[in-house]
Amino acid sequence: MSEPLLELRDLQKHYPTRHGLLRRAGAPVKAVDGISLSVQHGEVLGLVGESGCGKSTTGKTILKLTEPTGGSIRFMGEDITRWSRQRMLPLRRQMQIIFQDPNGSLNPRHSIGSILSAPFEIHGIARGAELAERVAALLRMVGLPPEAAQRHPHEFSGGQRQRIGIARALALRPRLIVADEPVSALDVSIQAQIINLLQRLRAELGLTYVFISHNLGVISQICDRVAVMYRGRVVELAPREALFFDARHPYTRMLLAAVPQPVPDAPRRTVSTEAWTAGESALLREVAPGHFVADHDSPG
Amino acid sequence: MSLLADAVARAAPAQAAGAPVLRVEGLGVRIRTGRHALRALDDVGFSLRRAETLGLVGESGSGKTLTALALMRLVETSAIEIDRGQVALDGVDLLGLPERAMEDLRGRRISMIFQEPMTALNPVISIGRQIEEPLRRHLGTGRRAARDAAVALLDQVGIRDAARIARCHPHELSGGMRQRVTIAIAIACRPDVLVADEPTTALDVTVQAQILGLLRDLQAEMGMAMLLITHDLGVVAETAHRVAVMYAGRVVETAPVGALFRRPRHPYTRGLLRSIPRIARERPAALAEIPGTVPGLLALPEGCAFAARCELATAHCVAERPALERIGPEQAVACWRHQHV
């Protein structure tokens, strides 16, 4: 197999805590606590888990939007773990992020045209008529009319703003996109439009996604492989079908059992919060080809 | 829940198919904004029987939360007016009651829980005190009896070590525990109707499953009717007995839950069901989309509000708005083209 696009080894992000009057150092919060994963060119890797499991922090750490406190990140064959902001700058063209709430990342005072022009200007890639043509092409690519360039973010619906967020992320044709809950704030009918758009763009542009979501239906639709996270660690990593239909870790099974199904005669279930004990080590055991499970003591 | 309780929960509405405990008819809400008056709710109607859960479903802006707030009489301001319709609780029209009488009913005969439990709880008052409050106010329960009742209620909503938790403050509890506490407050006076507005939307999926199970158990025990507002069709499928689907301030379809998921009769309902990504071995190359977006209230069309996004729409749909039409004993749809769906 060729070298992966992205490789995480024992990645950690610990946050220090301070307690009491003397601000004594407490036990650090281990938001990401030893994650090892690799992402192949062109694949969609899902990161799934409940709030506080560390999936978003993992996404931000991959892009070095926040600095790791341990472990290593290899991207396009280089160890970028200790790269400075300055050194990272050219690499930013290759790795981009899409957020849950495009509102928070689109400046309300700027026109869509100026928002989408910024990446080209910052990297000195295009200007004048060529720049306008690039912006129009981006808008077409995400299904918006070229006139959108003259308008401002508040004139668009949530789904349209997410299209603009996607257009900006794709402006410089990155290889890797971290999509952090990109459809969670959207209504179901709009969610489907955006998922389809992301799938189409991936095929057309040969993109690689790290797709973060708490929604297992969305993960099932878009991902090739899935990593289930719990308390800063990966507890199970498997190809999509194996994860959903042959889950081995009790936490994965509990998560899957809890998803309410939109079907007639849906079972009215009670989810037992099975107790299990997480193993000490963050190491995963391969139980089938490509299917890895963390150590645990099963409830039996 | 046990199999028996499960069977009871499913069968209860059929046995109690008497007069509805809550009947909403022709409900309309108008919002004045500067020069305009918007019709935010138009001709909303449904009924709710004892021990029955009605799922009120729709996307953002469809008017489902406004409907709940209107029937609780919690929306009226100088700009928002309930200008049409009836909300009958056991035959008494709530919209005609003076505010004092309404205050006496809220929390006693009709209660509400919200998406964010923290906003419903007072951060500086102990959990126990907040549960005692409706008991003392509405039922005149004495201090000591109310304190015991609060602990019993915490126990009933599945909180272990209830006596200790009663002395805690909201910030000391997890999101799921807090939602259990607001449920304890809401059911303290054994209301006839519980209005639950996205009660599990802010919770993790495993906690959501527990809270939905709790609501079903409480309903089976107490026979209360429940109006469950949600955007999540999975939640509806496993919790509701009947469903009302809202779009652009109107009810466009009502049906028993099984019928709705087996054969939706409104093109919007069908589109919603098709667009949900599902966990399945075989996945579609692309999800079915509903094109376009929900129309704004300022730009509601003459005819059917869904016509612009509807693959079945004809000139008739664009010209004239269809009324909710009864098409079966428990089913109604507002669509000129429902026979083609």
From TrEMBL, chain A:
Keyword Cell membrane: no
Bilayer disposition of the protein: Peripheral membrane protein
Keyword ATP-binding: yes
Boundaries of every ABC transporter domain copy: 6-256
CDD domains for the chain: ABC_NikE_OppD_transporters (cd03257)
Principal subcellular localization: membrane
Gene Ontology terms for molecular function: ATP binding; ATP hydrolysis activity
Record-level GO cellular component terms: plasma membrane
SMART domains according to UniProt: AAA
Keywords, sorted A to Z: ATP-binding, Nucleotide-binding, Transport
Biological process according to GO: peptide transport; transmembrane transport
Location in the cell: Cell inner membrane
Pfam short name (any one): ABC_tran
Homology family: Belongs to the ABC transporter superfamily.
Protein name: Peptide/nickel transport system ATP-binding protein
Lineage per the UniProt record: Bacteria, Pseudomonadati, Pseudomonadota, Alphaproteobacteria, Acetobacterales
From TrEMBL, chain B:
Location(s) in or outside the cell: Cell inner membrane
Organism: Humitalea rosea
Statement: the UniProt record of this protein carries the keyword Nucleotide-binding: yes
Protein name: Peptide/nickel transport system ATP-binding protein/oligopeptide transport system ATP-binding protein
Family classification: Belongs to the ABC transporter superfamily.
Domain ABC transporter: 22-273
Gene Ontology terms for molecular function: ATP binding; ATP hydrolysis activity
Family annotation (CDD domains): ABC_NikE_OppD_transporters (cd03257)
Record key words, sorted: ATP-binding, Cell membrane, Membrane, Nucleotide-binding, Transport
Origin superkingdom: Bacteria
GO BP annotations listed: peptide transport; transmembrane transport
Protein topology in the membrane: Peripheral membrane protein
GO cellular component: plasma membrane
InterPro entries: AAA+_ATPase (IPR003593), ABC_Ni/Peptide_Import (IPR050388), ABC_transporter-like_ATP-bd (IPR003439), ABC_transporter-like_CS (IPR017871), Oligopep_ABC_C (IPR013563), P-loop_NTPase (IPR027417)
The keyword Transport is assigned to this record: yes
Gene3D superfamilies listed in its UniProt record: P-loop containing nucleotide triphosphate hydrolases
Principal place of residence: membrane
